[in-house]
Every structure is written in structure tokens, then in C-alpha cells.
Design goal:
Chain lengths: 822, 425
Amino acid sequence: MPKVQYINPDEVRKPGQLEFKPIPVNQYSKTVEEEKENFTNEELVKIYHDMVVIREFETMLNLIKTRGEYNEVPYNHPGPAHLSIGQEAAAVGMAYTLDVEDFIFGSHRSHGEILAKGLSAIGKLSDETLEKIMDSHFNGVTAAPVKEGHTGTTKELAVKFLIYGTLAEVFARETGFNKGLGGSMHAFFTPFGVYPNNAIVGGSGDISVGAALYKKVNRKPGIVVANIGDASMACGPVWEGLAFASMDQFTQLWEGDMKGGLPLIINIMNNQYGMGGQTTGETMGYDVAARIGAGVNRDQMHAERVDGYNPLAVIDAYKRKRKILEEKRGPVLLDVLTYRYSGHSPSDASSYRTKEEVEAWEAQDSIIWFGKELVKTGVATEEQLEKIKVETTDLITYALKLAIDDEVSPHMDMKKYPNLIGDMMFSNESVDKMEDRPVEVNHPMEENPRVQQLAKKERFMFDANGKAHSKIKTYGLRDGLFEAIVDRFYKDPTLIAYGEENRDWGGAFAVYRGLTEALPYHRLFNSPISEASIVGTAIGYAMCGGRAIPEIMYCDFLGRAGDEVFNQLPKWQAMSGNVIKMPVTIRVSVGSKYGAQHSQDWTALAAHIPGLKVVFPVSPYDAKGLMNTALQGTDPVIFFESQRLYDIGEQFHEGGVPEGYYEIPFGEPDVKKAGSDITILTIGATLYRALDAAKTLEEKYSISAEVIDARSLVPFNYEAVIESVKKTGRIVISGDASARGSFLRDLASNITELAFDYLDAPPVVVGSRNWITPAHELEDYFFPQPEWIIDVIHERILPLEGHVAVNDFTEAEQLDRNARGI
Amino acid sequence: MAVPVMMPRQGQSVESCILGQWFKEVGEEVNEGDILFSYETDKASFEEEAKEAGVLLATFFEEGDEIPVLTNVAVVGKKGESVDEFRPGAEAAAEEIPASESTVETADEAPKVFEFEVDESETGSRIRISPLARNMAAKLGVDISSVKGTGPHGRIIARDIETAAAAPKVEKAAAPVKAAPAAKPAPAAIIESGDDFEVKSIPNIRKLIATAMHQSLQNSAQLTHHMSADARQVMKLRKKFKKQLEAGEIKQNVTINDLVCFAVIRALEKFPQVNTHYLGDKMKWFNKVHLGLAVDTERGLMVPALRNADDLSISGLSSQLKELSTAARNGNVNPDLLNPAAATFTVSNLGNYGVEMFTPVINLPQTAILGVCTIVPRPKELEEGVYGFVPMMGLSLTYDHQALDGGEATLFLAEIKNQIENLQV
């Protein structure tokens, strides 16, 4: 809600009507003869060649899947193969004009796009660069098998490399483009501009938008193409990606050369089926997918339908749309009509379509038709085309033999290196800035009003007499976060932050106050209320080489970004074979007071998913130190913050929060109060209630409690906790998450296993109830309270003399609650 | 539903056991964990706990009966339930019951109501104790069966062990007596009594010892050599260990007997022909030393074997010998270790009782046994012309002349003396 934009009631209340421009449908009408003036014969033959390569590659996989052999080479491939036989013209047409630095993203059915873009890039790259690319990818491991005995040109070698690298990846070989960790549905090769393909339908719909954002913000050449299916247009994250990509602010608020739309083409590879569901006529209502553009923005996304059975029609569209993107008028929506003869997967019996329908499309097969046109127009002879086919069959046979040879193309040796995949889950790098160039800021940091204000604040909560400073004078947790983030903005030129209300408002909880003044729009901006796109775009942004801080305003909204947080963000480092880094720190604010959908601690959800680092600092010192570590790293971090604590002062770290830069390593729990009789381990804001309980225990019952703040959930080093338990023999684990299935339970189970012989009682979990979070007035019955901790100690661990428990933590109650599921 | 109680099998080689004593009478309520009866194997006595609650419906054997293992000895169930099907030997009879009859019976029972009998009492012999408290008790030597738990549900927790350990000794000393009343042998039955005598039965274990000793003397050619060893070195070592123990530097109380055993094992390593079993027409040579230790218990002499004793350091040997003799005294030693064939050589120490010389009896099929006697100061020439009193330990080696000649036996005994005098640990 920028103040420069005045919402005039007289204007917006005026009557009128919206008008839509016509959306072109299959308007391309040139003949091959006519196109001869735009293409050389070699170019036209290359188009034919590339289509044949894709067809043969997919046909080979189809035969391997359905008959267990191709060209007398037997093989059993148990994994997936979603083939695109019939869609070759659409893929080659899409890729033909793209430059190497243009990025494509894809779907589960993207073998054709990988090959088309790869062949296009090989055609455009110099021999020297190609050699370098092949030699440097995994130190030449992927290239070695095809280099062996190769006698032809470098470009021919590169083609072999492309086919082999893709196929070895499909067959999960260590020599594949992603060490076999991506496989058929995720294979990609960034040096050729092929970015991750995505097994989740519509998965690329928001990730690709982040890639386009990266190109724009970092002034990188090239455009981004999102190849997504017609059925993915029903997916929420795709719509969220469209909303994000078409934000008015790009043209209305971003300044200077940043003004203008994203260089993005949403390319609907419209094969007219979503698995077995027919999009037009059955599962969707758009009739023509291009219609969607009309609903998105004033430009209607420059949408049009293109005949994807004619490669020249697609090329023509790309040439025209590229201009629009270069004029910064993106994004563009293309509805490229095509058809697949192959089933959704080899198990598809095609029960949803007739034989006649498939035959009718085969009768208009793009490769046959285009070949005939080339012969008819004298571009090529039949012998020439036949030779291409024969050579392609040889090439595919050669690559298949090589890719299934266990000697040449082994699987990862998990026997010898049992932690091989484990070691790839995180990149664990320490990087000041993702790119070395000056940062774009509005003023020197010391001129920033917030920075100046912080200089006057008390960095420790208490004065020399132990009296707390006034709230307004106290340096709070939000200040710790701000200092770490502003510091990184002045270090890393690629860093961007966005989310709901991040600019102007300064974030819903004022963490970013002062950042609006410091940063231009393209580094800090408001996103649509669209969590899937907030996280999804950050993933795309990081994949391309940037660093991002997306914000989820309330933890409860994480579900809105479920696929992005649980399926995309954590997986791509390992699925890429560590080609990709993922420096994304998602700030997630855990609420209270606002009831059932604004007060939940979902740390367990994040901790459960392999590939995410998860932290939850609750003091200003820890918040700043852990945020510095998060922003210095190259891994995805879910950074939880508590709305109860944004203004809390530092009361543990002697000397207060340091002004300079420091890091706190992830995974190290911190003893906030030493003690000898019982350990209380907490996650999140519960720490302060545990400290209250510790005080009562000491004063009333002479029990000395050691209070440990977990700080991190993933990774988590148990040593300090085990040492404490060895000393005390007793432990309560507490946090604000609903107890069932929480990370508290995970801690308890590990502690029981690791310190069993030292325990004087079973570790007991005090979490929130397994209910809806009630209104603020009833919250004390839901979230763990200091009295709960004392009662549970009395009832389950160490009966306290003279204590009368109010809350029922008996085994009988535990059994009953579990039996009732509450 | 009624369930049978079987005579358990204690150890692979045990085929039958002697029923010691019934602790419950037929018709009496039984809780899970209550002791039903005691029984004896060759050399150890055990107690059988009830695994189900109910009423003791029937017992099939009398005290003193020899019962094959895995035979039903009693039935626990609900009042009125039939026990016949569990009576030993009843299986065959049951098969003979005409099918029609049993069908009728089943029909009578229907409809069947499933009843759960929940045992609410905490009186079973299972002790609720935290892992920490258990470890502390072991370290502080606290007998947990005498400790009252103050944790949730009466669980013994760390503070209870601390309290027990800090309590005056008297209380602690009383505990074992209270704790192990059932470990005592069953009182002997009086068979016949006159004015000035009673003829009493002898316990099974006495019978077994009698047979073994008699057979040993009948079936071997035993003779004993005596020698004495300068005990200054072992006494010096003992003093050092004692001091370290008091200072808390070590945890194991290493005794003179432990040191002698350590020396014997070293000697056996040099004389493998003594570490043997004599089997009449052949000899069994062992390449490990399994040391038999004669232990005097309330039930009689027991000689449990310490397997692979040659692998142990002095502290390991000390702690394992302690464990073994305690187990033998408590009657819960693994019966397999009591088999004379389990040991390759035996040490019997009567030094504590002031015995100056004796002729121990070989535990056949072992080839020899060493008797360790008390330490007596004897005059000895310390240096030329200077005499002083030196503590000397008596050693009595009984060996089977069938297996060993006098020369070999003497050299072996001299090696033991040598080891004791120059012991390094």
C-alpha cells in the first residue's frame, strides 16, 4: 500500500465496462516454402533432425518399458517414463530460438524439452565452451563414457553427451546429469539452460517466476520459459505464480531500468489431457487455454494459441513474444496445442480416448508432415532424411548400451559410501555474497534511521542494578533480526526480501522497519497474499544463483505453501546431485492470541521433511546470530520467530547483543540457566515459561532446574542435553506445538534412547493440547504454563513435598486422551 | 481360564528338578509374581513365580519329588475350573474321550463371556526402579529389595537410593536376611525320632555332594603334596589395592585369594598337562583356563566355574570371582557352571579358617585341585646369617596320579609358589 498510489473514490466508483482484445488462435499460416526466406536449408533440416532425435529417444524408452528391449538391447527400467511421443514439434519449436542463457523449466513429461533445448544450445555454443562444459560437469565423469573412442566433431560429441547424460539420469546412474538422483521426471542440465523439471504437476508454475525475477533483479540476459501442462492450469500454485508474475508494481512502482514486466513465457504444452482427464470438455472450463491470459492482467498476458504440430508456427510465436519480453512487457502466455500418442505412462491403457482419435492425430504427425514438406520444397532429399533416421537410431542404441553398462555407468555405490545421499542433503557452505558486485542501496547504512535509532538502544535487558530498561529503550528480538538482515543486504547484492506487507509497513511485526528507506523496490517488495508463490519464486530465484528471504506472516499459512516448503525447497540440492544451491531463509512467524488459524507452532512439520534446516531462536542474541548463520549459508532454512517475543530484550548473553557481526552455529542447544536436579528443554517461546517454573521449583521446592533452549531443531546436537541429563537424571521437554507428533516427542524419544541408564524417570513432554487453539482468553488452558511443568514433575518424575497438582498429567489421563484422539 | 504351571528347565543339561517347598496351598489366592514353590537342580535352588493371578487349583507333586522339567506341577485358574486336562499323563487320557462328549461340554459353556481380570495390586515381586537408581544402587551396594520407592507409583528413584545409602549400617545389614528367606534350603524332614536322636532326610544337594566325593576317591589315584610360598609379595599387593580402594581410586576389592588364583592361572598356562580332564583312556587338554572355585554356602559346598579366567586382568578376575561366589551363595548361579566338567582346575581356599594343611578332594574329571592354606610366620634366612620371620602361605596340591607323575606335580606346585612370590599384576 504505497502512499504514492492514491485510490480515488471518484475514479474507481465510476461506471464503465471492461473490454478484452481478441485472443489469436492458430493464426500462423505460412507455408514451408514461404519460410524458406527466413531459414536456411540446414536450419530446416536441423529442426527435422531434433524432432527425430526426441521421437527416437522416447520410442526407445517406450519399448524398454513395454517390451523390455530396444533394437535387440534388453533392459529392465523399473522407474517412471512419462513420454511425449507426438509432442516433438512443440518442444523443438519452443527451444529453437532460445539462447543458451534462456532458461526452461519443465514438468514430469519433459524429456523432449531437455533434448530440444540441449540440441539448440549445442548448436549455439562454441566448441571450446562445449569442451569446457563437458569437462567441468562432475569433473568430466558424465562426459568420460562418450569421449571414449569418439572420433567425430565436438558438436557431435556434445550431442552424444546430451543423450547419454539424460538417459543415464533416467536410469539412475551416477554418471547421469544429476548423479541419478533426479531421474526421469527431474532431469536437467543448467549449462545448456535446462533448469529443473518437476514431477509435481504445476510445480514449475511458480518456481519459473522466481527464475525470471532473478534475471530481472540481477540484470541477467535471457528469458525464462515455464513448460507446464494444460491440466496444471487448475493448480493453485500456478495461479499464484501468474499473480506474482503479473504484479502491477513491476511497471508502476519499480524504478529506472527495473521498471517493466518479467521476462517470462508461461508455455502451456497443451496435449489436451491431464493424465486421463480431458481438459477441454471435461476437467476444465477454459475451452481454449489461452483464454486464461485475459483474466490475469491488462495485457491479457499477450496470450495466444499456437499450432504445436507445426514447429515453424511455434518458432514464429517465440520470435514475436521474445520482442515483447525485450520491451519489458512480459509475462507472456502461450497455449501450444499438441497431442501425445504415448499414454500418460507405459501403464496407461488409453481407456479415455478412442483409437480413431489417436490415429487421426498420427495421420497429421508433425515429423512425417514436416519431412514431406522439406522434400516437397526441395530443402532436403528423402535419402537425407532417411540417413538422419538411421543415424539417430544408431545414436540412441549407442547411448542406451552405454547407459545400461554397469561398468561404465554404475549406480551410486551406497554399499561403499552409505552416507552418500545423506552428505548431499545440505551444501553447508559459508558464502558472504552469492555474486561479487556492488550492492544497490539507497544510502550508506549509518544514515539509515533504524540503524541510528538502534545505536541508542540498550543491548542488554537490565541495568547494572538488575532493573529492566523501559521497553522503548530496550533492543529487542526484532532488532536482532533487522541487524542481521540489513547487514546482509549491504553485503550480498543478490539478496532480496519479500512477503506480505514487507515494504512500507515494515513487515507485520516491524522487523523490516527502516529497510524500505534503505533499499530500492526490486530488493524489498510486497508480494501478493499468495504463500505458494512467495516460497516458490524464492526457490526459482535461489536455483539461478540468488539469495532470498521470503516471509510467511503466520506459521499457520505454511500449509498454503505446502508443496513449495515440503516438496520443492528441501529436495533440489540433493535431487540435482548438488549442482544447485538453495540459499533461501523463510521467515515464519508463530502467532498467539488470534485463535485456531493464527496461533499454531508447526515446527514439527518443517523438521519432519528431510533437507530443511530448522531454527527457532527466542532471544535477541540468538536471533541475530542464527539469522547471520542462515544468511551466510547456502541451505534452505525455516526460521521460526515468535510473535510473543519481538520486543523482548536480551537477558542471557553477558554484555548484551554485540554490535558487530557474529554467527551462532546451527544445531547447538543453549543452557539458559544452569541447574542440577532437573533439566527443562524447550523449543521456542516456552523457554520463558520454563524459566518461571524453574524459579518456583527453586524457591518453593529447593529443586535446581537447568533450562536449555533448543534453538535449532534441524540439525540438533544432543550432546549438551545428554550431558545435562547425566547430571540431573530427569528431563521435561516443553514447547508450544500440539504435543502429538511434535518435535518435542522426537526429542524425548532420542533422549530416552541416548541417556536411558542415567534417567531417574521417563522424559516427559509438556506440549500444547491436541485441540484448536482457543481465543486469547482461554489460551492458558492450551499452551504449556509454568504450573503445568511443575505439576508434571510432581506427577511423573519427582513427587514434590507439599505440592498439590492442579493439572492432570497422570498415565491414566494420557491413555484416555490418546484413546480419544485429543 | 485355568493355566498350568510347569517345572522350568534351568540350564541345558538339567533333566529333572527336586520340588523344594510349596509356598501356596491349594485353594489359596495367587497374585502375579507370588512365589509358588521352590525347587532344586544339582546344585542350585530356585523359586517359581506365578505368571498369572488366580486361585491355586491343584498341585500334582509333593515336596521332595523329583520332577522331569517341563512337566506340569500345578494349575492356577478360577474357582471351579477343571484341572484334569493338565494333570501329567492326562493328555493321553484326554484323547480317549469320545468326541461327542466334548461337543456337549462346549455347548453347555455357550454363550462364552470374556472376562478380563485386571491385577490392580502392586504387591508382585517386580521392583519399580528407575535406570539411574538401579545403577546407583549397584555402585553404592544398596539392596534395592529393601528400599521403599518415593517416586510416582512407588518407583524407586535416585533420592531413595541416596537415602538408603546414607542410612545406618544396621538397617542395611538386616535387609539381606529379610530379602532372601526363600534362598534357604527347605527344612529337613524328620523321618524317625528317638529319645536322643532324630533321623532326618538329607537335602538333595547333600546327596549329590556325597556321591561326587565318594566317586572321586573311588575312581582316582589321589595324593597330595604340600609346599609353602613366601607371601610378602601378595600381602604387599593386597595392601596397595586396599589403600586404593579406600581412596576411591579403584572400585574392586582385590583379595589375597584373587591374587593366588591369578598366580595359579599363570602357572597353569605353563603346565598345560595340569589344565586337563582325565577320561580313563584319554586326556582332554584345554587351551583356556576355566577355574573352579570352591564356595561354602548355606546349602553346602559348591564349585562354580569361571570360564576363560585366563583372559582376565586382576581386577576383572576379582570382580568375576566375587560375582560368581555371590551367585553361588544366593543359589542363582547358572547350573551349567556347577557341572564339574565345566572347570579345568579348582582352587579351594581354607586359609581364612586357619587351616594349615589339608588334602582337598579332586572334582573329577579334573586332574588336580589346589588347597590354599593360612599364612604362618616361619623363620627364614633373609641374608647370610640373618634370620627373620617371614609370612608363608601353605599350598596343598592334590593330583590324580593316573594323569600326572610326582615330578610334574612338584614342578607345577613349585611354579605356583614361584608365581606367588614374584607376582606382578
